[in-house]
User: Fold this.
Amino acid sequence: MIRTTWIAGVVVAVLTTGASAQTGACVIASDGTNPLVDLNTLYNAAADYQIVSNSNDAYTYHFNVCGSATFQDAMCTSDSMVCEVKDDAAIDVYGYATTISLARSNGYVVLTSTGLAQCPFNTANPYVTKIYFMCADETAISAKTEYYYQCLLEIEFHTPLACGGNTVNYRCDNNTLQCVQEDDGHYGSHAECESDCVPAPPPPPPPCEGNCSKYQCSSDFQCVSSETGHFTSETDCSSMCTPFSVRYSCYSGRCVRNSRGTFTSYTDCTAGCTSYSQVHKTENKWGCSSGVCTEDGNGAYGSEADCESACGSQIQYVKDE
Assistant:
């Protein structure tokens, strides 16, 4: 049930029965002097609270408490809590429901929410809304301060809920897995509800039908039965459980890995490379130039030693007179 109250140019939609809420950010614990305060009941899923601007009655602030505003458009999106509206269109967002925080200050419980990231008059600061909740017997709402050039809106909200000590019960909505207020709810606090309102564990895997054997590939590339094996059939295991094929080829008298090589083992490759070297050992590979031996496919010498022996004799030493 919703009761509408007029207060100094302010249209207030006051929720007289509990409404669903889904946040623990609107609960402030007892500090030993002040009791616990739970403001979730102030959330109104049916209609926004509205405040007409003190400076220009063409502007209205649509806001909710502890949840998103019901007024929504391209600017005032689904996560917006406080929006400034003119001509039925939002022009600013002064607070998002996901940025709520509560604190105590000078007898108030203060809800702070940040909105758009940049104030046009001071881009280093965001839009901010502060709602000052005061303990009172009757509900009353008014604009406390409008700092237009600081993009700061302050609202004073008198409510019995700010007195604290009120009993608020919650239940877990099994469809959304969120905590909602309910007079007969099983949980006496939002925190208690939140700890239990979690998804159920996944069901166990269905029982195995038919051949339930599993296989795994051992280190010696044999398929063996195993409860934790990755293969459900020995055929699948055998097709994958094969050693890696490593082949070799002879390159410049040395054995190197080559996927297209003619040798299947390093031993065979070494033997093949040795035979190749012996067959071609008479090939001339060294040449002498200006008394220096260098590798030369057309050289006159079959080895570096032969080259140096002959090449050294070509160097003439001249004795100084």
